[in-house]
Design a protein that fits this description.
single chain; six-stranded mixed beta sheet; globular; 116 residues; mainly beta
Length: 116
Amino acid sequence: EVQLVESGGDLVQSGGSLRLSCVAFGFTLSNYDMSWVRQAPGKGREWVSGINVGGGGTNYADSVKGRFTMSRDNTKNTLYLQMKSLKPEDTAVYYCAIGSRGQGSRGPGTHVTVSS
């Protein structure tokens, strides 16, 4: 059974940092394109970042470029999203998901709240 479990969300002040983690069960992360997506209160889902199968190249939404870094630890079958210089508009539930745009299965999410 494919399962993704996110963690690391918290309440943080504007300008602060957080690292989100996503552990995969039932499949090997490095065999798939993977993404982080987020959904802010009252808004639609937004793709945040992606990492490519194999080479592990990453890409980011303009809204987070230069502030967020996505990585993968194949030995732990885990994705990470390092977030710095957080802004109140980054407040959302963050999900890891299968697919280059997060269109596949995703986890239950982890809450990030950035206070001003």
